[in-house]
Amino acid sequence: DMGRGFGTVVDAIGNAGAESNGKPFVIYHDVIDEQTNGDIEICIPVPAGTVLPGDPVRYRELPGGPVATTVHRGPYQEISPAYHVVTGWIEQEDVRLAGPPREIYLNDPQTVSPAELLTEVQFPIDKTPR
After folding, report:
1. Residue range 70-88, pLDDT digits in tens
2. What is this structure's pTM?
């Protein structure tokens, strides 16, 4: 499904005469695993103000701010330890989440082996004191 979704977004960007200006990423609005489906957003950065054709693809700006992050090297299916590292740090530092987690895909699975894939796991955080 994600491959098809990225294809839909790439096509919409191309049809709008625009180009990506950043790494593709996914925002996970739900916990997703082998037993559970959930809502995700498939995202490809484009220049501000890019006009896209509409459903199912739309333009929106994500709020900036601090993130707790780590980089996972290896197959996508083996990424869960990276999530545990980041969520452990968030707990240890007693910071609040400020949004759903993201996976930023730093290289292309069509050009590198699964062992060489690099994925940045980010959790937006709120660093204001509790």
Report:
1. 999 999 999 999 999 999 9
2. 0.91
For residue 99, the SS3 value is coil
Mean pLDDT of 87-111: 95
Q: What is the 3-state secondary structure (H, E, C) of 38-100?
A: CCEEEECCCCCCCCCCECCECCCCCCCCCEEEEEEECCHHHCHHHHHHHHHHHHHHCCEECCC
How far is the first Cα of the chain from the last one, in angstroms, to the nearest whole number?
Answer: 39
Torsion of CA 71, 67, 85, 26, to 10 degrees: -60
Q: For residues 93 and 129, is the Cβ–Cβ distance under 8 A?
A: no
Sign of CA dihedral 86, 106, 22, 45: negative
Rounded CA separation 80/97 (Å): 18
